[in-house]
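User: Run a structure prediction on this.
Assistant: Running it now.
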Amino acid sequence: MSAINHQKDQEGKEAIVPVASINELIERYGVDGIAPTNEAAGSINRSPQTLRKWSCLDCAPNGIRPIRINGRLAWRIADLQKLLDGSVA
């Protein structure tokens, strides 16, 4: 079962975002899939803004990089898995 993360949306209203584990992301999107920033962040125990900052400053740990889809960021699940395993080079 997922934890719940309380965040504020763009209008300042509180939004409840479920935090998925990496295994739940793999189940949902497959190992070769991609996950939106909010879900990717929850799976590696970081805030979504941290992942956005990594993308903007090009300073993600071990060089993982997001994919841009219509101006939004998405993250490869395989890269997130490798990051958690410590095997991204």
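The two ends are 31 Å apart (CA to CA).
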